[in-house]
Amino acid sequence: MANLSDSLTFRHGATVANRFVQPPMLTNSGEDGYATQDTINYYNAHSKSGGMVITEYMYVTENGGPALTWKRGREQLAAYDDKFVPQLKKVAQAIKHDGNKAIMQIAHTGREANFRAMNGKQVFAPTGLEDGLDFPFLPYKVHSLSNEQIKEIIAGFGAATKRAIDAGFDGVEIHGANHYLIQQFVSAYSNRRHDNWGGSIEKRMNFPLAVTKAVVDTVKQYAPDDFIVGYRISPEEIHGKNIGYTWHESTQLIDRLTKEFDLDYVHLSMPQFDAKPGDAMLLDTDKADSSFKDSTKTLAELFHPYLNGAKEIIVGGVNNREKAEAALSLADLVAVGRETIIDPLFAEKILNGEDDQVVDEITLDQVKKNHMTQGLIDNYSGPAAGIPLPGAANISSLHQGFGGWAEMKYPKNPEVK
Ligand SMILES: Cc1cc2nc3c(=O)[nH]c(=O)nc-3n(C[C@H](O)[C@H](O)[C@H](O)COP(=O)(O)O)c2cc1C
């Protein structure tokens, strides 16, 4: 078995210094799509979070975000135009200044682009109102994408990859997880199309395949040979009776993606690194029926036969050496999310044997050291908190407002509500 301190070389030649990865995490620090000084300070403070640091998700076309945004200045970042490149360069430099790899996560958030609706703009998904699909859990309307728009989004993933190369990133991660647009296409629940992009599982794979082709073609044309391309996937989408897909289908997709495009890595998005079939995935609200618990193996292991030379990253709940080593026994690389928000030196401390120095709860003192963005502070210090952060109550005095998603106001406009 590998050690956490072992280096790893991806199939296209890039080497990371150790097995820790910082996974993508929204910092809610953008303004009009641009990274701000708050964003850059945060990434500067996180340059040692792992041999590889993956940025938060950036939207690749104008209609692809912002998601999970409650006001201007607390936004998701954008990569849909060359005007964003100078700030993206600063993000890449901040991450890389200690010699680690910087990966940019590229995404389209589809129906989750809530801040568009707040600004009176249309929100899009594979299937929406025009085709009779309503999302009862969303407080705004969702429209079906046209074939023309789908092609623009695919091209947008290619163009955003070019911007990542120009900004000096070492790679890109295609965000195919967590209920955003790519997952919405793969999901039988969200995708009710009958054209090239929907229907059978083969057709529901056409969008992720086309996106990955656009990314890989761009990399072949413009990037250094060792540029890293990864793909993030939620292994299952099961909400009670609403079944998007199971691991039997997601492994088929990964098999095709890794065979056809020589991906460097596959990143399984899970709330627990040792999750098994039928365990709820991130943001899945309803429990799966016991019939979905059809293997005693972990999802990490069930994906092994389908990686075809790609490395595997797993994530979820790692905050000490024991869990990091248990995760590394199942995969090639271990991502540590919330614990690196709290303590960006977590990986370094573990690698140096300074386990007793690890901070595992957020405090006022730690907020200064880790350069937590005001957006993350607002998200965690008030009533809103998404995925819980240990110690969040300690920082309530820093709260500058955000009462939670139920409080959000959407304009009464025929396009929106
Ligand atoms: C504040 C926050 C923001 C996140 N933003 C993203 C994101 O931009 N893209 C993504 O793929 N996952 C995102 N995630 C999920 C994390 O990458 C990770 O999978 C999850 O937090 C579980 O890992 P952990 O238990 O180590 O935190 C986010 C999680 C948190 C806590």
How would you portray this structure in words?
This protein has 417 residues and is an alpha/beta fold. It has a single domain (8-370), classed as Aldolase class I (TIM Barrel). It contains 14 helices and 15 strands. It has an eight-stranded parallel barrel with strand order 3-4-6-9-10-13-14-15, surrounded by five helices. A two-stranded antiparallel sheet has the order 1-2. Strand 14 (311-315), helix 10 (321-328) and strand 15 (333-335) form a beta-alpha-beta unit. The chain is globular.
Task: Give the tally of structural domains.
Answer: 1
- Specify Rg, calculated over alpha carbons: 20 Å
Q: How would you write the strand order of the largest sheet?
A: 3-4-6-9-10-13-14-15
CATH superfamily: Aldolase class I
Keywords:
417 residues, TIM Barrel, 8-stranded parallel β-barrel, two-stranded antiparallel sheet, 30% helix, globular
Outline of the structure:
The protein has 417 residues and is of the alpha/beta class.
Outline the secondary-structure elements:
Layout: E1 8-9, E2 15-16, E3 20-22, H1 37-45, E4 52-59, E5 77-78, H2 85-96, E6 101-107, H3 114-118, E7 124-125, E8 143-144, H4 147-166, E9 171-176, H5 181-186, H6 201-204, H7 206-222, E10 228-233, E11 237-239, E12 242-245, H8 247-261, E13 265-268, H9 299-302, E14 311-315, H10 321-328, E15 333-335, H11 338-342, H12 346-351, H13 364-370, H14 374-381
Flavin mononucleotide binds at residues 23-26, 56-57, 105, 175, 177-178, 232, 269, 271, 315-318, 336-339, 387.
